[in-house]
Predict the structure of Calmodulin isoform X2.
Amino acid sequence: MSEQEIKELKLVFEVLDRNRDGKISVSEIQTMMDELGYDVSEDDCAKFVEKVHHSAEGSISEKEFLAWMAKYREKSSDSVLMDAFQAFDKDKNGYISRDELKQGLELMGEHITDEMLDSMIEEADADHDGRINYEEFVHVMNSS
């Protein structure tokens, strides 16, 4: 995470930590959920805290909160990339072919020349097999 993201998450933590004891308790989470209009039981809040804290202590430290959020953001980003990859991989064989890439881009309103398409594949296709696997797709998406 960037320094700015960490700074923003620390502010979120401060808002959640209403009694300023350096921890987010089950009751603080439940109060926040109630104020946001969500009907969440104390038991559900306790399970969440236990999942993040990995114990039944009943609270989450700032360090644990930041680590969980970093992990959550990473998973969220991975899931978005997987969804995008699967949208292009029409035949679901684990690869994006030249034709699938062209069709996907055209569906998105991108009309590209054959030369541009070949250039995109050449850039992404690290193992030079003429198609793009998930790892290659992720690498290109993360470097752009």
